[in-house]
Structures are given as C-alpha cells and as structure tokens.
C-alpha cells in the first residue's frame, strides 16, 4: 500500500535518537514522503526535553524543502488512569499526539491493567493515536480497545520498527492480529517508522505488505495521503492548518 505520511519520528532531542529535523526532512523527501510528524519523547522518558521544547514547535515552518511538517509528540502513558506526561499548556501548540507504553515509565503489569489504561487514555480525548501496541510486554484486550478507539476516532499505529524485530521483539504476529481486529471494528490505522535515525524515515517495508495482507481499506489508513491525514485531524476536531490548504 502506498504510504505518503510518516506519523512517528524522532530527532536527537529525544535523548536516544541521532538525527536533526533537517536531516529527517532530507531523508523524507528522498523516500518520497509528502508529510511527516516530528514526535519526540515527552518529559518522563529519560533524556527527553523540557516541555518548552514542544510548546516552541509553533516556530517550526509548515514546509521545509517542500515537505509538510506536522508538530507532534510521543507522550508516555503514566498509569492505569490513563494519564500522560504532557504539560497542560502544550496541547495548544501541537497538531498530533501519540500515546505509548514505555518500560522506562510504565512498568508492565497485567492484561486487565493495560486494557484499562488504554481505554482511559482513549476516552480522555487528549491523544490522537496509540503507538506500537504490538509490544508483547503490554498485552491487552484487542477487541475492547479497537472498539473504543473506533468510537472516539483514535488511530491505532502499525510501527515498522516493531515489525522488524529489533525493538519490542515478538510484535510481528500481534501487529497482524491487531490490524485485523481494527479492520473488523471499522477503525483507523496510522503508520509510523519510529525512526531514531534519519535513514529510517518513511521506510515501511514491513508495514505496507501487512496492510496489503489484511486487505485494509485505504480509506481507513490515514497515512495513505496527506489529504486523508488532514481529514482525520479535522475529524478529531483539530483546527485546520491553513498552510496545508490544497494538499
């Protein structure tokens, strides 16, 4: 499946990634992307930046070298209540918020607790997508979460890094199962490289065949085109980004 938007990327600001935003843009363009989200880790992750870093994304150009830039964050799910580590003032400065489990922040618990945390964060209205849910350390009720995400227009991410097996080993089969459950629920899929080095930006050699294999409808893959991604943001109630009119 054609994917023109990468919704999960990191710069060296995350503390354990190695490229600048400009380097990410260069590789995004080389890999045929028309748009990507810059989503560094938020403050509870060791080595991550102060919240001012995210609030100040308002200074970022909307286009760099003809590539559209979406201002975002990968925030941490903190607890079963579904709280995240974003400062209240940050939301107004961002276009896109992913919430993910990370072992350094949320110690793995049990299936029921993980499910409760995911349902609570979806219902909070504070996030647009759930990141790398294939991680076997965080088992959850696929059906319940997919149905809730569909009801609240929260996208479920297919993470190319997870599918390669280098990180979150054991995610491959779980990602396929999750994709099928989301498809059955009529929910939305987003795709992220989870690039921590610029050469991985826009590389979906695992995600794209998976989408084809499960026969995911293209209108449910919000990263298929920039227009579909922007339509999803509008569905989420986010204000239109005037610079992107015509995309």
Automatic annotation (TrEMBL):
One of its GO terms (cellular component) is cytosol. GO terms for molecular function: phosphatase activity; zinc ion binding. Zn(2+) 2 binds at residues 16, 41, 196. Residues 5-79 form the Polymerase/histidinol phosphatase N-terminal domain. Gene3D superfamilies: Metal-dependent hydrolases. Keywords: Hydrolase, Metal-binding, Zinc. GO terms for biological process: bacterial-type flagellum-dependent swarming motility. It comes from the Bacteria. Zn(2+) 1 binds at residues 8, 10, 74, 194. Binds 3 Zn(2+) ions per subunit. Its cofactor is Zn(2+). Zn(2+) 3 binds at residues 74, 102, 132. It holds the Pfam family PHP. InterPro entries: Phosphatase_YcdX_put, PHP_dom, PHP_phosphatase, Pol/His_phosphatase_N, Pol/histidinol_Pase-like. PANTHER family: PHOSPHATASE YCDX-RELATED. Belongs to the PHP family. This is Phosphatase. It comes from Vibrio algicola.
